[in-house]
Amino acid sequence: MTIIISSPNKIVRDVLEKFNSDVEIVDWDLRGPAPVKKIDMVVTPLVDGNPEYRFLEDVDFTYLQCSTLGYEAVLPYLGDHHILANAKTVHETSTAELTLTLTLAMQRQVPRSVKSQAAGTWDTFYSHGLADKRVVLIGVGGVGTAIAQRLAPFEVDLVRVGRTERDDADGHIFATSQLPQLLPDADIVIVIVPATDETRALVDDEFLSLLKDDALVVNMARGVVADTDAMVKHADRLRFAFDVVDPEPLPAGHVLYTHPNVLISAHNGGYSQALAPRLERLIERQVRHLFAGEELENIIRR
Questions:
Q1: Euclidean distance between CA atoms 46 and 272, whole angstroms
Q2: DSSP label at residue 226
Q3: Where would I find the D-isomer specific 2-hydroxyacid dehydrogenase NAD-binding domain in this sequence (predicted)?
Q4: Mind listing the pLDDT tens digit for each residue in 255-277?
């Protein structure tokens, strides 16, 4: 049996080539029409591949394997017969690492130290720090859990927030409906939720107005989760660090680029040297599942 699988980049092709003639490789990065009409499993490129998912509509396929955790953008192009899987196990650790990096950088004023070094100035100062701070973590999925695990050694007061109120093995989870009661006491708010109609513009003017002066908001979710105009409005009073923004990329000359209370990472969350080997391992496992007639991992919808 030969399985037809698309390859959007060298990372995926290198894995597929291991299967020799058992896999027919179709090089397709989704930036144009597919070179064939029938593909058993389509593998999407990473975000920086700038895919045009509308081209999926002209292809007969069964499985769609995302190279990303996020999958919202592909949903409009899927039918009832399509099986969608995301890249769980690939990006969680790297994204959690960057979340802690941005948070610590702002809490210890690393940008100030960088500027002082560049100026040849010995600059000793007190900073906010992370210990004993109340951190409201909005989102308790794979990345949220990875962030919570990495926050634990820093001796923070962690408040986890999910879609519904409940308890799990790690303690209590508050509901997003309770945010108006939770935000006023927050020193740091970390947002790592999927982009849905429910979470779009979750971080808006009303949300930010509830925060005390000098609180830090870290958006690692999706750009549309935070209202950029609202961030601009509150940037003199609050502090922001974000890996995603709306629109993305942020237009040249935008005020947030140079604002002293803002630290920007250009959607680098999953992009570490761990990405390629983890993606390779996932793709290889998925192909082996197909050959064995087994269910794919990380199925989002079928």
A1: 13
A2: B
A3: 101-269
A4: 999 999 999 999 999 999 999 99
